[in-house]
Amino acid sequence: MSPALGPRLVVAGTHSGVGKTTVATGLMAALARTGLSVGAAKVGPDFIDPGYHGLATGRASRNLDAWISGPETVAPLAAAAGDGADVLVVEGVMGLFDGAAEDAGTASTAHVARLLGAPVVLVVDAAALSGSVAALVHGFRSFDPSVRVEGVVLNRVGSDGHEVMLREALAPLGLPVLGVLRRDDALVWRDRHLGLVPVVEHRDEVVRALDRLAQSVSRACDVGALLALARGAPARAVAPLAQARPVARVRVAVARGPAFSFAYPDNDERLAEAGAELVPFDPLTDRGLPRQVDGLVVGGGFPEAFAQALADNRPLLGDVRARVGAGLVTWAECGGLMWLARSLDGLPLAGVLDAEATMTDRLTLGYRRARLLHPSPLGPVGTELRGHEFHYSVVSPPGEAIALESRFGRGTEGFASPTLLASYLHLHLAARPDLAEAFVARAGRTTLTPPQATDSRCESGAVAPL
């Protein structure tokens, strides 16, 4: 059966911090508690919100990023997120029309809503508004007629009287108010970098919060009307996602657990399609890498929150240093880059890379065009990539394996050899099965050599010769 888009809606906001995650995740949980199967997706590259979606729905959430993966991939990814579900709820990013690419509109929530032909529910922080709410909502509704803003949820409403004033102001617009959430400290999520703590760090706490959230949304929102709005979106067949070709049969160790929780399901799927058996391990608790693996993938997360425990696991760090030094094919992103460094804030780590990681107060954030300057497991010199960075750390030296370019600057970073790529760049393989094929093929043809007694740590921009 061809993939298709079924009932769906997009939860958008007027700006960041307006309560999109509260409303979207609460709606997912409320719908799931009625017995419906709920699909979930997130606009943009964020790793954290999809973790909450998964806990609310019991299904993997997908990232819909029109800049990294291309506009043509958005609908197939959404169809995968909603496959077999009764309804798909898509959480937006930033404000409705805020993009983060060259033209400031590509990859915005509005762009994705157009690509999906999905109705939009606009979340408004009404805490400091009364009559002006009408001008605000009217502006968002009329700014782009191709974006179907079909309902409003008012968040952080102060009192019954406040609600009356807001409803009176909005009435002439003819746009239904589909929910009114009061100011409630129980609905405030704990901050950590991207705005939410990862699910894996506080799972029990999150489960309790989701229960409260589902109850609040069920009471404060017209869940039936929201579901009817989603069901009004016309069904549409879409092209299937491009799959990786099977190129080898290999076993790949994949870091998971509280310290390394950032992972796109599409990346795992492309690697598996290319022939990889993925073998998870936890760098906090496992004393060595899984046996008889041909490759290693270490994604992002918050290793800084677990730095002491990671440093204390000396048997695993020694095993990683020896096996990567012997030629284990390795791909590390962001947190994985830090873990492979000599140290993090002075705590000794794997020492695969001759570099030190340090946490700072300065955020590095944004989309990146990239080009490989050294051979790597993901491709030869000249391979072009698209990805994003989000980190408060720096690595010194930064490396020189990848040329990076953004809307506001350019530079080099990262470490590479024919068997290793480690950088801050997060890659989404939904539209790049060729990268999965390259990694698996390299893992399938690499013969590990016995670890040498000499220092085999990587130099800036490259790894020690193997």
Write up this protein.
- With 466 residues, this protein is α/β, with parallel strands linked by helices.
- The chain has two domains: 4-237, P-loop containing nucleotide triphosphate hydrolases (Rossmann fold), CATH 3.40.50; 250-445, 3-Layer(aba) Sandwich (Rossmann fold).
- It has helices spanning 20-32, 48-57, 71-82, 109-116, 132-143, 160-170, 203-220, 223-231, 265-274, 307-312, 314-325, 335-340, 433-445; strands at 4-5, 8-13, 38-43, 62-64, 87-91, 120-125, 149-157, 177-182, 236-237, 250-255, 276-281, 295-298, 329-333, 343-344, 347-348, 356-372, 384-396, 402-406, 409-413, 415-417, 420-423, 426-427.
- The strands form four sheets. Strands 4-3-5-2-6-7-8 form a seven-stranded parallel beta sheet, with helices on both faces. Strands 14, 15, 16, 17, 18, 19 and 22 form a seven-stranded mixed beta sheet that branches.
- The termini are far apart.
- Mean pLDDT is 92; it is low at 190-196, 452-460 and 462-466.
